[in-house]
Amino acid sequence: MKIAAPNDNGKINQHFGQSREFMVCEMEGQKVAGQKIISAESLQHNHGGLAKLLQDEGVEVVILGGIGPYALEALEQTGFKTITGAAGVIREAMEAYARGELVSRKVVCNHHGHGHEHGHSHHHHDS
User: Which of 23, 26, 19 is nearest to 47 (CA)?
Assistant: First the structure.
């Protein structure tokens, strides 16, 4: 099984749409057997393109921190199993998922460091 997560120096990037790269790990049982980094630099905020990029890598599960509703829908429509609301070291999160210990928490648009949901879709861009 292959699992992907938006990468921020080995940790889960909390804003999916601004992720410049993804870590894709090949799982063997409950351990990471191999990993590679794939660039998404040209696909930022291109939700369908990000889904296709991960699909082309053979990814089945995407572990995420915060994600907007449209990006989440794009991933789910492509057939990925998605886990949202995750944080911390990517490899640890993937191994926790493989052990059945990582469950989705509804976190939408949670890229400000707040711990609450928003009922609307928007993007903030710092100037």
Answer: 19
Pick from 40, 5, 49, 47: nearest CA to 21: 40
Section 49-59 average pLDDT = 90
Considering the chain, what percentage of its residues have pLDDT values greater than 90?
A: 57
CA-to-CA distance for 27 and 25, rounded, in angstroms?
A: 6
Superfamily of domain 7-98: Dinitrogenase iron-molybdenum cofactor biosynthesis domain (3.30.420.130)
pTM to 2 decimals? 0.80
